[in-house]
Amino acid sequence: MNKKVSLTGIKPTGMPHLGNYIGSIKPALELAHDYDARYFIADYHALNQIKDPVKLKDMTFEVAAAWLACGLDPNQVLFYRQSDVPETFELAIALMAFTPKGLMNRAHAYKALTQKNAEEGNPLDDGVNIGLFTYPILMAADILLFDADLVPVGNDQLQHIEMANDIAQSLNFNYKTEILKLPQPFTHKEAGLVVGLDGRKMSKSYNNEISLFLPEKKLRKTIMKIVTNSQTIEEPKDPDNCNVFSLYKVFATSQQQSELRAKYLAGGMGWGHAKEALFEAINAQLKAPREKYFELLERRDYVDKILLEGAEKARDIASQTISRLRKSIGID
Ligand code: ADP
Ligand code: TRP
Fold first, then answer.
1. How far is the CA of 23 from the centre of ligand 1 (A)?
2. What is the C-alpha separation between 110 and 134, in angstroms, rounded?
3. How far apart are the CA of 244 and the centre of ligand 2, in A?
4. How many CB atoms lie within 10 A of CB 216?
5. Residue whose CA is closest, atom 1 of ligand 1?
6. Which of 4, 13, 147, 196 could form a disulfide with 202 if both were Cys (CB 3.0 to 4.6 A apart)?
7. What is the DSSP string of 53-80?
8. Neighbouring-strand partners of residue 8
C-alpha cells in the first residue's frame, strides 16, 4: 500500500531556533518514519522578506544544512528547493482563477498590515506587496502539487491550509473531478510551548530566541540570560512558574526533570545551578547535530547536490499533477 504523504515547507528567513526545532523540525522528522515525506525550502516565499541575493542564497543553504544536521535523511525524505520546481508557479497561476479576492483579504498577514495602516491613518494598502497578498495561493500550490495528505505546521499556518482546501475544492467542483487532493493540517501538541529568554513564546519577532546551533560557550552565555525572579539561593522555588524549568521540561529526561524539580522545591539551589542544568540538557541533545552542521557548512556542493537530486524527483511528481490539471482544464 502506498504511504500517505506528509509535506511541509520551511522559509529560509533566519537560522532556526529551539522553538522551531521542537515545534517543527523534530516532529516533521518523526513523521518521516511513517509517511512519504516531502520537505522543501520555500525560497520564493522568503523573497517577500529578503531582497538581498547573497543573503537569500546563504540562508537557503544554511537552513538546508540545519535540517540535514538534525537528521533529515535524503534517502528517506524528498528534500528540495521550491524554486527548482517551476511547476509550482504554473499551478499557482491556475489556482488564482479559483481564488476569490475576498478570501485573500481575510488572510492573517495581510489583515494585520491593513489594520495597522487603518489605525495609523495611512492608506490601507501602504507597504503591502502582491507577493504578501497572494502568499496563501503560492503556499496552496506547494501543497496541492504534491498530493499532500498531511501538512505538519504550527498553529499560525492553519488558516493557510484551510485556504488551500477552499481553493482546491472550488477547482475540483468546477471540473466535477478530484484533480487536487485535499490536505489535512497536522499540529503537534508542543506547538507554541517553547518559551524564549523573556518567558514569552520563543520567536524571531520577539528577539528572545536561542539559536539552534550556537557554539557551546555562546549557548551557555545565552542561557544565563534567561529571565528569573530575585529569590535568594536558600528560598524554595516554584518549577511550574519558571522560564528555566519550562525549557528544561522540553529537553531533559523525565528522571532528570524529577531530580531538578526536587531541588527547586527543597531550596538551597541558585538560579545559576538551574541554568547550568538546562545548558547540560540542551547541549546533550544538540552537540552532535551542531558538529554535523558546522561540518556541512564546509560542504556546500554536497548540500546543493542533495537539493538538486531531490528537485529532479520532485519535478517527476509535480509534472504528473500538472498534466492531470492541464487535461482537465483544457490547456494541454
Ligand atoms: P518565528 O515565530 O520565530 O518566526 P516561524 O513562524 O518561522 O517562527 O515558525 C516556523 C515553525 O516553527 C512553525 O511550524 C512554528 O509553529 C514553529 N515554532 C515557532 N516558534 C515556536 C515555539 N516557540 N514553540 C514551538 N514551535 C514553534
Ligand atoms: N508559510 C509557511 C511558514 O511561514 C512556510 C510554507 C510555505 C509552508 N509553503 C508551505 C508550510 C507549504 C507548509 C506547506 O512557516
1. 6
2. 9
3. 30
4. 12
5. 203
6. 196
7. HHHHHHHHHHHHHHHHHTT--TTTEEEE
8. 39
